[in-house]
Design a protein that fits this description.
Elements (H helix, E strand, L loop, with lengths): L1 H15 L17 E2 L6 E2 L5 E2 L1 E5 L3 H4 L2 H13 L4 E5 L39 H14 L3 E5 L3 H5 L5 H15 L5 E9 L5 H14 L5 E5 L3 E2 L1 H4 L8 E4 L21 H8 L7 E3 L21 H13 L4 E4 L2 H4 L17 H4 L3 H5 L1 H8 L7 E2 L15 E6 L2 E6 L5 E4 L7 E7 L6 E3 L9 E3 L3 E4 L11 E6 L2
Parallel strand pairs: 4-5, 4-12, 5-6, 6-7, 7-8, 10-11
Antiparallel strand pairs: 1-2, 2-3, 9-10, 13-14, 14-15, 15-21, 16-20, 17-18, 17-19, 17-21
Helix pairs in contact: 1-3, 3-4, 6-7, 9-10
Keywords: Signal
Pfam family, one: Collagen_bind_2
Protein name: DUF4038 domain-containing protein
């Protein structure tokens, strides 16, 4: 099995061109991300739209060796991902793939640092040097690294104090503040009320020492960072975790009982002031059991991750993060600590169909005017629908879009659109292709912007037959 892995990695390295001392790649001109002027979206340093298309590679730093990390990053670049969400420390006792321990005495205030940074000399290549290598390799590929300093369960277990957190944050800021492709994710799958003093200390210190990088809080499932930290100066954007439960599994006390309706979190954050970007940073992962803990349960598929993406983005989200069961834990052959009924390995799971389909929503959003886009359910005539029948509408200056997960008919109030007429087409979330819609009145794809027009999506009405109705005004 390990021979097979090596062959796979060697082929990918030959095709993608692994960065080595003999084969360096020039650093791309990345700069830290910014929040757009209207407070709703991200943009590059030169003001261009940036649609956050993330992947959860939570254990990338600790599980993968250099050549494996390159294989993963090359694949994610090819599939259009531009952010990888990663844990810096999964636990205070974490050891990476080279056997390097991150901390002395499991204390976040005392990272183990060796002199030099020589990958060919084990005594000069430590846990933090390996993180540096991956961060820089990501930058070379135009990918940002969203780093969780310490996972929430370790903090909840009392393994980190506020004083230690400040010292640790000072170390992280000093090491990475000059690296252009960093975003900070405070927290780590936890409520803000669990050790709030510590999360504020960590966030405040990171922001003071490294004000040039954006930061948010990665919350527990079925919650959002805005519940606790919306008005904190260190939190420049919101992130919610819609979670991995289906409608009838969403029963935990204290959670926001939105079920699979992740668009409701977007709407909740969108209404808050001051205005800040928001998005689903952890929806249901492809190939993970519904509800997480019962491996015999049905597993979330490509159609589900598409639905979460379009629902949350059309409701006003600034991006979306995809996840896969095997990839997020970088599962490998002979691992004995696999979670959530994982049945395959990371290098196989990177090719799951949903992963390849995520780039289509990024391409669609960036294909038209970006910063003027708003959610607008008033475009929909009649009932928007409940649960899987829900229609979600968004529009910009010269376009409107409506998403249907089931391929149900969509009735649009055409007089809500600018101009005298619109060209209509169906956008396929599975392959990113457009199909023109012909009008019976005009005989072509042009529809008059008057009254109510009903559009019949291709195929039969069923879950997973999802489409985007696109209306462009000249």
């Amino acid at each position: 099995m390990f021979k097979v892995i090596s062959l796979v990695l060697m082929a990918a390295m030959a095709a993608g061109g692994v960065r080595t001392a003999d084969n360096p790649r020039p650093m791309q001109a990345l700069k830290p991300l910014k929040v757009s002027a209207n407070g709703r979206y991200f943009m590059t340093a030169d003001g261009k739209p940036f649609f956050w298309l993330g992947d959860t590679g939570w254990l990338l730093f600790s599980r993968l060796k250099r050549e494996e990390a390159i294989t993963y990053l090359d694949d994610r670049k090819q599939k259009g991902f531009n952010v990888i969400q990663v844990m810096v420390l999964h636990t205070t006792k974490v050891v990476n793939a080279y056997g390097d321990t991150a901390l002395k005495n499991s204390n976040v205030a005392t990272p183990i640092i060796t002199p030099g940074n020589n990958a060919d000399n084990a005594s000069q290549y430590d846990y933090w040097d390996h993180i540096d290598f991956i961060v820089k390799a990501a930058a070379e590929r135009g990918i940002y690294i969203a780093m969780v300093p310490i996972w929430g369960s370790e903090v909840k277990a009392g393994k980190v104090s506020p004083v230690q957190a400040k010292q640790y944050a000072t170390f992280l800021a000093g090491r990475y503040k000059t690296q252009p492709n960093i975003v900070w994710l405070n927290g780590g799958d936890i409520r803000g009320t669990d050790s709030m003093t510590l999360w504020k200390a960590l966030g405040t210190t990171l922001h003071e020492k490294d004000p040039g990088h954006l930061m948010t809080f990665h919350p527990r499932g079925r919650t959002t960072s805005s519940i606790w930290f919306h008005n904190e100066t260190w939190l420049q954007f919101n992130m919610f975790q819609s979670g991995h439960r289906r409608y009838n599994q969403d029963t935990s006390a204290g959670d926001l009982h939105y079920g699979e309706d992740n668009w409701k979190y977007t709407e909740m954050d969108y209404r808050k002031t001051p205005v800040k970007p928001t998005f689903d940073g952890e929806p249901s992962y492809e190939e993970i059991p519904q509800g997480l803990h019962d491996s015999l349960e049905k597993r979330w598929g490509a159609d589900d991750v598409r639905r979460y993406a379009y629902w949350s983005v059309f409701a006003g989200g600034c991006g979306y993060t995809y996840g896969n069961n095997a990839v997020m834990q970088m599962h490998r052959p002979n691992d004995t600590d696999g979670n959530y009924g994982v049945t395959n390995n990371w290098y196989e799971a990177i090719n799951a169909p949903g992963a390849a389909q995520m780039q289509h929503i990024k391409n669609l959003m960036l294909s038209r005017s970006y910063f003027d886009r708003v959610p607008d359910q008033s475009l929909i005539a009649g009932e928007a629908g409940e649960q899987y029948d829900r229609l979600i509408a968004t529009r910009g200056k010269n376009y409107a879009m409506v998403y249907t997960y089931t391929g149900r008919n969509i009735s649009v109030k055409m007089d809500k659109l600018a101009g005298k007429s619109s060209k209509a087409s169906w956008y396929n979330p599975r392959d990113g292709k457009y199909t023109a819609i012909n009008s019976r009145v005009t005989g072509n794809g042009t529809f008059t912007n008057k009254g109510v027009q009903e559009f019949d999506a291709p195929g039969e009405v069923k879950e997973g037959n999802d489409w985007v109705l696109v209306l462009d005004t000249p």
